């Protein structure tokens, strides 16, 4: 029987998700609409499985065919559209990533892919056209496993015992989700083991139905809707999810389903009924529109148009794709070969894989776009930030001529130091770890093993390569002031100090700057008893991903007008840090090297030279860009050699 209340609940869920994605301010916890969908899926799947098991008519093949018929065609159409759109309007680097995401989405493993790329709420997530398919992958994985487990258990257990096993299993899955949400937050968000309890709650609503009077149905429904809405309002991107707060939308959905109020004024109204029917297709199309609006940098007023367009595309997808019945009656194995969605999955997976393995088919792009685009991958070939490389070595181990110590900015300048020497007879050692400046006594606001790394560094330096010059490099301004690139700012902590020493500070204070200076003074003083030290002043940060933006502008507009960051903007961000570096150098007899003298002219710090970016993102110098500093390092080492 068609459930109007469940159909209306789908509308509530998709409205919340769409509003949140277009503008989180509209509904901070709207992402919890996905949890509502999970509960609904669990309820419907349990109904199909248990009803057919009871009647002895359950077919696992028919079950999978029905699910594929429901999910695959509309998803395949979206993937095909994005591949065609991307061919003309997406840069090679992003088009290659799109190919991988298309293949993983149509194969229903995209949740694993996105887990290892970044967090769901990270700013970079808004550049992934199919990020929202992670939830489809989780549901599909549940569809694959749940009927198999139920079918297997039903062979050995009575229905009564099986229900109790599922009840206990749901409780265990919930406890695991609570634990995982704090210990492995990204994995907990994306993976089935920590999401299964939400779908199992839905299944419990079917196998343990409530019998309610009409009056009680309304009360239970209102309570459930209230819990769901409270989650949409109270939760946010900063919430631990799916932690205990996920109980609000999950149990709220459970109550609405249990109420079974088909005559509800809340869910059974014409608007919600239509949106509920179109909800899957609306969900599919809305997120690529969110990404498109960001990709084209459209004004905020266009967000309202995006919401409306999502609904229109959802209707069209439902009417002309989702409503088409591709199901087949399988009496023999050969009948499976007439199931069209299987071919859709295969062809889209092949197309996406080809785009990925073919590096985005760079050959069809203009040369200037390819040159700008490829600088994103033009990075330190020695991979010095790998945990297994301590120390990192370039050149000969017989004659170490320089040591580079620091974070990812040190990694970005490492080969600039290496280029000064003859690598056959000289070697350069790197003690480099991402997000880990070499400062003794420094602590991070978030969990980090940088303190242990610095202890390992100081021990190595005091006992190896005595007299060899040490180049100290760190992106210190970011540890004090936070991110300079707005695209990397996703929460308040991203623009606050990320390090501290004796006391935690949530804004830049004279006390924090003084503790930074004392720590750096102690660190350099201990080093220069063994090694002469040169401190590199901060590298200019462009505040946007140069090769990505440059290649996009060249592709879409055949022009890139931004030539660099103003010197005054550089000074405004780095003035206090530069002064600290210079005072420490003076007190410890260390030398200072200033990249600004080589990267900035006419009051502008360059972002590109002759149509080629000199950064591989917004602040790390690329392998071509860092060679602009080779003469800076050469002058230092030539002067040192003469002493």
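-> sequence recovered:
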């Amino acid at each position: 029987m068609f459930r109007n209340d469940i159909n209306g609940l789908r509308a509530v869920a998709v409205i919340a998700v769409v509003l949140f994605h277009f503008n989180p301010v509209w509904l901070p916890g709207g992402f919890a609409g996905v949890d509502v969908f999970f509960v609904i899926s669990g309820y419907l799947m349990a109904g199909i499985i248990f009803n057919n098991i009871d009647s002895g008519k359950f077919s696992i093949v028919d079950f999978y065919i029905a699910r594929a018929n429901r999910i695959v065609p509309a998803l395949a159409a979206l993937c095909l559209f994005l591949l065609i759109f991307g061919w003309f309007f997406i840069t090679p680097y992003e088009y290659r990533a799109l190919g991988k995401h298309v293949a993983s989405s149509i194969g229903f493993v995209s949740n694993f892919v996105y887990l290892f790329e970044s967090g769901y709420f990270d700013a970079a997530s808004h550049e992934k056209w199919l990020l929202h398919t992670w939830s489809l992958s989780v549901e599909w994985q549940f569809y694959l496993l749940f009927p198999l487990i139920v079918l297997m258990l039903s062979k050995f257990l009575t229905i009564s015992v099986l229900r109790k096993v599922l009840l206990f299993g749901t409780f265990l899955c919930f406890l695991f989700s609570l634990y995982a949400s704090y210990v492995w937050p990204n994995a907990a968000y994306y993976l089935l083991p920590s999401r299964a309890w939400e779908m199992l709650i839905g299944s419990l609503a079917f196998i343990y139905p409530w019998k309610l009077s009409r009056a009680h149905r309304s009360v239970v429904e209102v309570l459930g809707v209230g819990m769901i809405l409270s989650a949409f309002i109270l939760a946010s991107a900063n919430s631990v999810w799916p932690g205990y707060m996920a109980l609000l939308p999950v149990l709220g959905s459970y109550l609405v389903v249990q109420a079974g109020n088909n005559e509800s004024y809340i869910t059974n109204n014409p608007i919600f009924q239509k949106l509920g029917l179109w909800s899957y297709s609306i969900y599919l199309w809305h997120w690529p529109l969110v990404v498109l609006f960001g990709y084209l940098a459209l004004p905020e007023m266009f967000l309202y148009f995006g919401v409306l367009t999502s609904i229109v595309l959802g209707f069209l997808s439902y009417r002309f794709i989702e409503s088409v019945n591709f199901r087949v009656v399988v009496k023999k194995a050969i009948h499976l070969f007439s199931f069209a969605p299987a071919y859709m999955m295969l062809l889209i997976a092949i197309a996406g894989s080809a785009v990925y393995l073919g590096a985005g088919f760079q050959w069809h792009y203009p040369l200037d776009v390819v040159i700008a685009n490829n600088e994103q991958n033009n990075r330190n070939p020695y991979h010095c930030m790998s945990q297994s490389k301590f120390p990192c070595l370039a050149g000969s181990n017989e004659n170490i001529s320089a040591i580079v110590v620091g974070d990812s900015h040190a990694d970005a300048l490492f080969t600039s130091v290496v280029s000064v020497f003859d690598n056959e007879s000289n070697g350069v050692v790197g003690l480099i770890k991402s997000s880990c400046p070499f400062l003794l006594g420094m602590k991070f606001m978030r969990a980090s093993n940088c303190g242990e790394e610095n202890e390992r560094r100081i021990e190595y330096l005091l006992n190896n390569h005595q007299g060899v010059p040490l180049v100290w490099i760190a992106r210190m301004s970011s540890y004090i002031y936070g991110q300079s690139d707005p695209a990397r700012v996703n929460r308040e902590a991203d623009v606050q100090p990320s390090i501290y020493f004796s006391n935690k500070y949530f804004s830049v204070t004279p006390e924090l700057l003084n503790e930074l200076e004392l720590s750096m003074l102690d660190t350099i003083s201990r080093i220069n008893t063994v090694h002469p030290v040169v401190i590199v002043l901060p590298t200019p940060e462009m505040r946007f991903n140069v090769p990505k933006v440059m290649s996009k502008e060249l592709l879409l507009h055949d022009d890139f007008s931004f030539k660099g960051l103003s010197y005054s903007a550089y000074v405004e961000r780095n003035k206090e840090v530069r002064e600290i570096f210079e005072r420490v150098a003076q007190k410890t007899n260390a030398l200072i090297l200033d990249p600004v003298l080589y990267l900035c002219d006419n009051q502008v710090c360059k972002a590109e030279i002759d149509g080629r970016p000199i950064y591989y993102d917004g602040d790390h110098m690329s392998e071509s860009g860092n060679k602009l500093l080779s003469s800076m390092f050469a002058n230092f080492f030539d002067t040192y050699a003469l002493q």
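The chain has two domains: 4-364, 377-539+567-598+629-642.
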